[in-house]
């Protein structure tokens, strides 16, 4: 046993019992040779500099009281916070922006609903979130997959929870989202808006982080066999919007969303009937009814890549189709490349 | 200066206010019916703008500025239905513009329009600018009238380039004396809403409407331009749910097809004018950009959307669930002595948020 590691007592109870019973219970892993009051002093790691055992005891109990005080204060604050939240909500005294984004509701409620999916269900691993600038506008461009747009929501949680500057991702969503009742209301409140150049530009010019999935329905509704093959990136409208606003483009690759609903078929007739762009048939849906809507618990990775600057171009560049296509391809290549890299690194779909 | 539509509250207020401006010599109010309110020292001419007689009025008084306020969504008092309103809006505008075109003295034309020309559809961008083309043109009602009126005004502006034309697209006008369909809607004890939709609404205060009309009708100030098309709205946005909570009126979400049906039923019995375009507004909402108004017209509204609504809410009295008493109820809960935690700390933490 080469120099054993000192494992500090980490919990009040063991510290207390060690105090009470003197030196009867030696700490596991500690060197037995150490005599004197030191074993008492050292365990309480943060206060161990003090030699006197008595002082350590006082410190420990002081810390305990402070802990309890803090815990109590925390609960107090939480209840008070909850009540004042409730008060603001029922009296309507909260603000929404022109796009209908309700920041308070998103932070307090919507994100809390999505977080268990993010943390527990898909166990999302985020890489490179610092590639999103801490301030100013940025356009996050991601691949789209998974039959239902859960990838966009998870990306939003990833930015919300992990970005060091606490930025909020404003997603651009298809018009179908804004035609459906309830969905449109929640989407607007969560800060999403219609994927059109006017809205995107307005948001970028205000210095917001805008998320877009240029593959659109082609990406999200592609068959399982074509997973992780990027579809056409629209007409590159997102590039010209970013160029006009002079904001960097942050490519983002999402791995794991493709397998949540493996789409083995597409009922064109039903889709036409319901007015949807596709009607997915998965091994469980629609055979199991609502149970078929439960996504497979895949393990996700979201990687934000190096930002591609767009501020070096002259203003007329946004009108240049050649440059648009080149930049679009560059972004697309980068996302595709990262996707392959992440897929190689992935151990399994579910772990 | 000639003002049409003075029998309405807004027209009357404009006439009374505008006489106090030093550069205005004479104000002539025109309407088909005699107004119930005072017009101050203004001259009232009872004329129907749908008749060619309006040209005579213009010539007789050597009018140099025409403020066309008679573009409205609801019939005045009980007289006449939708057909009369439409006729006044469209035919009246045509006659008035025809008269202006022949008049050698007219130098300036101001037309009150509405942001409803943008329609409201889920496929529209979130914020309309003056140049945004509507995705779905309004199919009928006041919005269609406004679109047609604007079309004629554009034609007039082409034919008479020497006349400064200003089209003001007002958002929903609210205020203590507003009599718009939306004001009526907000006065219902229980607000029917469309299930699953929470529209974004924008309001403009009556006082701001009067001020903007005055700016548009006068000579432009230095560095500003008052001809063209401008959106006029208070800053900020309120959701319908927020409005109902601030008013203290509960909402009843109804399925969209049922709302149309209820709307028709209410209209038939004459409780409210719940037109299809009104329903569309209350489904998808509408927000306009006011950058042009601020930068080009040089006008900064006194009231934000929220302040306008607060002023309106004060004038309407409390609803079934007044926000004050709800807030007090929450405060009472906050004041309850929670078992291990004394209420003191709690009250301390709630106070700052109350002050916000």
TrEMBL record, chain A:
Residues 1-52 are annotated as: Disordered. Residues 21-30 have a biased composition (Basic residues). GO terms for molecular function: acyltransferase activity. It holds the Pfam family Acyltransferase. Keywords: Acyltransferase, Transferase. It comes from the Bacteria. Signal peptide: none annotated. InterPro entries: Plipid/glycerol_acylTrfase (IPR002123). Residues 138-257 form the Phospholipid/glycerol acyltransferase domain. SMART domains: PlsC. This is Glycerol acyltransferase.
